[in-house]
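Async update (no meeting this week)

Hi team, since we skipped the sync, here's where things stand on the single-chain job. The sequence we agreed to prioritize is pasted below, unchanged from the tracker. I ran it this morning and attached the output directly underneath so nobody has to dig for it. Comments welcome in thread, and please keep replies under the output.
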Amino acid sequence: MSEEKKTAGQEGQSGFPDPPDYQLIRTNRKSIAIQISRDGSVVVRAPLRCPVRKIEEFLRQKQGWIRQQQQKLYAQTRLRERQELTPGEREEKIQEARKIFPGKVAFYAEKMGVTYGRITIREQKTRWGSCSSKGNLNFNWKLIRMPEEILDYVVVHELAHRKEMNHSRQFYQTVASVLPDYRQRERWLKEHGGEY
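Output:
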């Protein structure tokens, strides 16, 4: 694996307007991929022998997507800065979560044809939700600070355990039957959950 930092257009002009700096990582892969780091910087992963001209042409084609992701990242950062909570505000959020989750659970439980037991709202460092063998559900109150589609995903994920108490193919088929895009939501939670 080789790694270098370039400015687009530095080798072989590609016509890429307003070129961004990017970190280029060459590996034994078959395709080019772009990743936006948490600080907004651009990381490009490319095959070992891929010409810089081709990499920069790919960047040019993805320029709109790159800027969109950077803008979203900036907006999320500013939002988190505004969301630093005092103890009183934190308690208000917990009470808000206790009002929101029952409705979400009831809606998706009916849609999925499952029953459930007690709903508990907690602050957990390593888990966003859980479902016991008796159908009791636990949810992390911090979920209500995230986009609503992420909260919905966690609710559906835990309710799916009422059909499959595992993470088998059948389990994920149950989740997908309700949220076909669950993989994107799951990925978002893994990548950004720790920021909350």
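Quick observations from my side:
Strands lie at 2-7, 21-27, 33-36, 42-47, 119-122, 129-131, 137-140.
Residues 87-195 form a domain with the Zincin-like fold (CATH 3.30.2010.10).
Reply here if anything looks off.
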